[in-house]
Amino acid sequence: MDSPTENTSLHWLQNVEKRIIKVLELASGVMNELASPAGPRKEFINNHCREFMQLIKDIQVTLRDEIKSAL
């Protein structure tokens, strides 16, 4: 049976994984928009880039905090 610590670690890793997948989806959306034959929509790109940067920052903070708590 898994210990509570293992369950917490697994849950934490799953949350980080979901955020990383979202980051990749945002990057893909921006690339698709830039490649659009009609030309990129500025507001779409701005929103996706803003969300991308916020998620990257959140992931960095989460990873830093988890590493500190593991030491």
From TrEMBL:
It is found in: Nucleus. One of its GO terms (biological process) is regulation of transcription by RNA polymerase II. The keyword DNA repair does not apply. InterPro entries: Mediator_Med11. The keyword Nucleus applies. It comes from the Eukaryota. Keywords: Activator, Nucleus, Transcription, Transcription regulation. GO terms for cellular component: mediator complex. Pfam families: Med11. One of its GO terms (molecular function) is transcription coregulator activity. Component of the Mediator complex. Belongs to the Mediator complex subunit 11 family. Component of the Mediator complex, a coactivator involved in the regulated transcription of nearly all RNA polymerase II-dependent genes. Mediator functions as a bridge to convey information from gene-specific regulatory proteins to the basal RNA polymerase II transcription machinery. Mediator is recruited to promoters by direct interactions with regulatory proteins and serves as a scaffold for the assembly of a functional pre-initiation complex with RNA polymerase II and the general transcription factors. PANTHER family: MEDIATOR OF RNA POLYMERASE II TRANSCRIPTION SUBUNIT 11. This is Mediator of RNA polymerase II transcription subunit 11. The lineage of its organism: Eukaryota, Viridiplantae, Streptophyta, Embryophyta, Tracheophyta. The gene is MED11.
